[in-house]
Design brief:
395 residues; binds zinc ion; Rossmann fold
Length: 395
């Protein structure tokens, strides 16, 4: 077994990384290993498995067997407890300069237990922001230009265009592709033991997003939330119903957000207490209070982002609904994403013209853009649903 086996539909990338791991061994032994380098950029659409690939690479670099998936090093990386593998993501919309400085400071040290110091940066497209003079990307750039020995940076981003040129040019690029529905179905059945029918539905609905497909198969709440979105358009009969639907939409996003941050928040609080020792007094106790306070702020920012991500995912589900409606209206010979909801799709198709469906799609897209800029979701969604109910009143 190899940690690279879990990368669905990424044979090319997996091969490239395995060759790099072999060369990394040579580098550790003081020889040349041209396939290994200290800065990597993993690009692929959301759900293609960028984070999984980065994690597998980190495991393989630390593991004496090149990524067996079973040893302490492999397991610690998987559980985010390996002292030499740091996985990070922006807490808010962008990375903060201070956060990146801290990473760079950590990167100057030697490996503690492992063979390499590995830093995985999710969402490397959020390293720069127009408002900042001193951009986090510049801080990182210095570290990548003059790397400490045995330090490896792995940056993950949706596409090459999203990463600034100066960083991009110093990284070796690994491209990941969106796995096909049949590849996702297969892995859900063989690896996660899903029933074939459910696996096929999950693969279609998640549109190649492995993590979401897995959640759909395993978690009934996720399936119920999707089904609620499919039933939403037909429920928008009156303005009161639109207001009610917006409230429920936000509530569902809250639940989803809580699911996604719960375990990690508790673990982090526990870690702080462990570091300071349980029942600390005096100066120590003040240290605990401050650390917990800082942690709480970080967790609040993260929860906010997780919540807006959850709203966005539900809006993407809604988009897939109207996309299917349009396909039905056009009589297009393509498979429907939400085949299980064919009754709702046909009802919606019969109740509107393709032009109106297009208007609705535009409105959902517009709402996604509005919400990405910090607007209060509930009001924006009320407006959206009122417009979906009757597109004639739109702008
Ligand atoms: Zn291992």
């Amino acid at each position: 077994m190899s940690v690279f086996d879990g990368l669905v539909g990424q044979e090319m990338a997996a091969h490239e990384l395995q060759v790099a791991v072999t060369d990394a061994q040579l580098v550790l032994g003081g020889q040349a290993g041209p396939a290994m380098t200290h800065a990597w950029l993993f690009v692929g659409p959301p759900g293609s498995g960028r984070s999984l690939a980065a994690r597998a690479f980190a495991q393989a670099l630390q593991c004496k067997e090149g990524g067996c998936g079973q040893c302490k090093d492999c397991l610690d990386v998987a559980n985010r407890t390996h002292p030499d593998v740091v996985m990070t993501e922006p807490v808010g919309v962008h990375y903060g300069v201070e956060d990146v400085r801290e990473l760079v400071a950590q990167a100057s040290g030697s490996p503690i237990r492992g063979r390499w110091r590995v830093f995985i940066l999710e969402d490397a497209d959020r390293l720069e922001s127009q408002q900042m003079d001193w951009k986090p990307a510049n801080v990182l750039l210095k570290a990548i230009e003059e790397p400490a020995p045995h330090t490896v940076w792995i940056l993950c981003a949706p596409s090459l265009q999203d990463v600034i040129a100066t960083i991009k040019s110093r990284c070796r690029v690994v491209s990941l592709r969106t796995p096909s529905a049949s590849e996702v179905t297969e892995v859900l059945i063989t690896k996660y033991g899903a029933e074939p029918e459910l696996a096929a539905a999950a693969a279609r609905i998640s549109q190649g997003h492995i993590g979401q497909a897995r959640r759909y198969v395993r978690d009934e709440d996720t399936r119920n939330r999707h089904s609620d979105v499919m039933n939403l358009p037909a429920s928008l009969t009156t303005l009161d119903a639109c207001i009610e639907a917006a409230a429920q939409f936000v509530e569902a996003a809250d639940e989803r957000m809580k699911d996604s941050v719960k375990g990690r928040d508790t673990q982090e609080r526990e870690d702080v207490r462990q570091v300071y020792g349980v029942g600390a007094r005096g100066i120590e106790a003040r240290g605990v209070a401050k650390a917990l306070n800082d942690l709480e702020k970080t967790q609040k920012r993260r929860a906010k982002r997780a919540r807006s991500d959850a709203v966005d995912l539900a809006l993407l589900d809604l988009l897939s609904f109207y996309r299917d409606v349009l396909m039905v209206q056009w009589g297009a010979d393509v498979s429907l994403i939400n085949e299980e909801f064919v009754t709702q799709l046909h009802a919606a198709a019969a109740g509107a013209s393709p032009e109106i469906t297009m208007r609705r799609i535009e409105e959902v897209l517009r709402t996604r853009a509005t919400l990405s800029g910090n607007a209060a979701p509930r009001l924006v969604l009320e407006a959206l649903f009122a417009t979906l109910r009757d597109p004639a009143v739109a702008h």
